[in-house]
Amino acid sequence: MKNNIRVERAIKNITQAELAGQVGVSRQTINTIESNKYVPSTLLALKIARVFGKPVEEIFQLENSDL
Amino acid sequence: MAKTKWLFPYNSRFIGIVLILIHIPIKLLWDAHYPKGYDYHDLPDTGGVLFSPPHLFFIGTTLMVLVGLFLIAFSKEKIEDEQIIQLRLDSLRWAIYLNYAILLFSLVFTGGGDSKHILMLNIWLPLLFFILRFQWVMYRLNRSAKSNDSETRL
Questions:
Q1: Which of B3, B76, B83 to mutate to test the interface with A (most CBs of A within 10 A)?
Q2: Domain check: are B64 and B89 in the same one?
Q3: ipTM, 2 decimals?
């Protein structure tokens, strides 16, 4: 699964730590999600999408390797 | 958000460290007092007394070490989240695998008193494996987050 959290953060101009605070996780977790090392739960993905005010599919997308 | 049942508060890890540290001089003093050593489990059926001073001492120090290890192993992180819960479970599974592999191996290749010592080590060895593994994983997580910072600066 890939995501464009880093891009969305840049658009909204917030840091990893700020995003982490808004969704209630550690900054390290945002970091590992951004670098595709950790796949968040549905709950966390929905919360992140809500921060950016977009549907979750615009932030997270399946890759061929997931299929 | 994260489900953190059955974990101790963050600061209890420091109580755990203190318990283990103060157990060391107590144990050293005791060993200096009884230089020849003794059998902790000299139970009534072998002609001993159940709550003899050495046995009470054994119970006391073992409790201190075990409670200390439990507090260190199962205290919350400053910010608990789903990834940390997953890493904790992974480390626990890893520690159990490793511990049973070593336990089986040592029981196959030892006998008599050595087996008893191995079983006694197993009172606290799984917790120690878990703590070491979990701390290592957390250290790596923090380090990778820091190195990513310096690359992207976002």
A1: B83
A2: no
A3: 0.88
